[in-house]
Amino acid sequence: MAEPLDIRWSRPLPEGVEPTTVTVSRDSAGRWFVAMLVEDTIAPAPATSAVVGLDAGITSLVTLSTGEKIANPRHERRDRARLAKAQRELSRKAKGSANREKARRKVARVHTRITDRRRDFLHKLTTRLVRENQTVVIEDLTVRNLLKNGKLARAISDAAWTDLRMMLEYKCAWYGRELVVIDRWFPSSKLCGNCGTVREKLPLNVRKWTCECGAVHARDVNAARNILAAGLAASACGDGVRPQRESSRTGRSSVKQETQRATAGLPRP
Prior knowledge:
Cas12f1-like_TNB; transposition; 8 helices; 39% helix; alpha/beta; two-stranded antiparallel ribbon; 9 strands; flat
């Protein structure tokens, strides 16, 4: 081949730096990749006073403590019919035949299309969150346990909360940001951000609720704001956030009291 190959660069190489290692690979869809290992220094992002708490969900992929909701693109759901058709065609091909290999690659291309779109969306979202905020607070979700829910497992897998957290972790480290992860048992949805009362039960189908104090809460926005307050308290106290198993007689949880104390700059009891 005399002419150069048609190459699409994911990013430009740093000026004046020569690659130390070049790796050529091919994925299941038949695409070729060339990975170059170079030494590069990532400059920290300019400091900012903005902070944000994130509440992960399915309808809204993340809800910010500012009230903004990022819709879930549902990439797997959008291509589900195309994937099912490609898999049916694959099942009808004879094993070991050339037509079966073509059908297998077609299925693989649908899978890579879903994966690439999901990764691209998460990269854009996490880069924006890290650049705009000095501190990002998230929950320590146990995705492995959540996947045991048969009704929501497919939607949870498509949301890719684990990838979202992983990207936030290394991008915060790159750009000099702080990522605070609060305890998984923190009752972010059931905690009233106004008076500190914790509801005993709050089913998933309840998206808006009214506290005894009269405050009306949108479930996801209230959770994101409580996550932010708990994360800032944990960062100030230098400790994790873990609520009491039982609420006090007044209905106020120790988590809210710790949050208020840390926010006010008072020492812990």
